[in-house]
Amino acid sequence: MAPRANWKGYLKVGELSCQVALYTAASTSDRVSFHIVNRETGHRVHRQMVDADTGHEVEAEDIVKGYEVSSGQYVFLEPDEIKAAVPESDKTLELDTFIPCNGVDTTYIDRPYYLAPVDKPSADVFALIRKGLQEKSVAALARTVLFRRLRTVLIRPTEDGLIASTLNYDYEVRPAKEIFADIKDFEIEGEMLDLARHIIDTKRGKFDPTKFDDRYETALAELIRAKIEGRKIKRKPAPEPKKVSNLMEALRESIGGASPPPGTKPAAKKTAPKKAASEKKPVSRKTAAPQKKAG
């Protein structure tokens, strides 16, 4: 079954344009999902909209969006009023700014989508736009109405097509200083820095999403299988954290059996303390038999 497009419109650069469709790139449909069930009856439980003060159920036609202007006082917004205020969608992704592919702070990236041509006549123009972005190693910024909101979209080329990622607005991203303001600066140099660099160098690799397993989902699936089969699952003991007295010791422990970087002193091997002479275990000696005198 072919995937269903989330959005259809036009991709445009100058006078070039082609029909495109937007498809969800990341989905949670394969995750383990649960229903809320009444333990006594085994029947599913449905949520109801209830008045917070009266406790009475509220019918769907009586529910309206409200903006709180003061405590308990709301301005009601009707669906047709909201629709009239939202910008009309022209169904066009017009590429008007080109930036380096790594020119966007990843904090601003919201959700990824696949962007593809909808038919064969659009494929040639689409391929030309993709190839142009790829040859210049650039991404493009565009704006359009998606899912009832005016959104900024980052469009990046891949070998197969285009990736379109919606971007968060500046007001939606919390300033980093709010989180990092209390982190103190301190100098790290010498052997400590050499060890840290060495650990990074020995663990270099490439991003391969197939290597990362969702242990939470795996554990849930196994728990469900065990419940169905009437088995009990043994709870795995939590790993005990290693106690490290200082940062340098932690770095040395991190290296493990690997060779330390040149110029650093190898970690000293811990040896058992020598026993004092008085504590030495006496050597067992057999008592010699008395010799007879010649005579």
Automatic annotation (TrEMBL):
Q: Which Gene3D superfamilies match?
A: 2.40.290.10
**Which segment of the chain is annotated as a signal peptide?**
none
GO molecular function terms listed in the Swiss-Prot or TrEMBL record: double-stranded DNA binding
Q: Where is this region: Disordered?
A: 234-295
Q: Name one Pfam family in it.
A: Ku
List, for all copies, the residue spans of the domain called Ku: 55-184
Q: InterPro entries annotated for this entry?
A: DNA_bd_Ku70/Ku80, Prok_Ku, SPOC-like_C_dom_sf
Record's compositionally biased regions (Basic and acidic residues): 234-243
BP GO annotations = DNA recombination; double-strand break repair via nonhomologous end joining
Q: Which UniProt keywords apply?
A: DNA damage, DNA recombination, DNA repair, DNA-binding
Organism superkingdom: Bacteria
Keyword Ribonucleoprotein in record: no
Which NCBIfam families does UniProt cross-reference here?
A: Ku_bact
Question: What role does it play?
Answer: With LigD forms a non-homologous end joining (NHEJ) DNA repair enzyme, which repairs dsDNA breaks with reduced fidelity. Binds linear dsDNA with 5'- and 3'- overhangs but not closed circular dsDNA nor ssDNA. Recruits and stimulates the ligase activity of LigD.
Q: How does it assemble?
A: Homodimer. Interacts with LigD.
Family of this protein: Belongs to the prokaryotic Ku family.
* Protein name, entry field: Non-homologous end joining protein Ku
Native species: Neorhizobium lilium
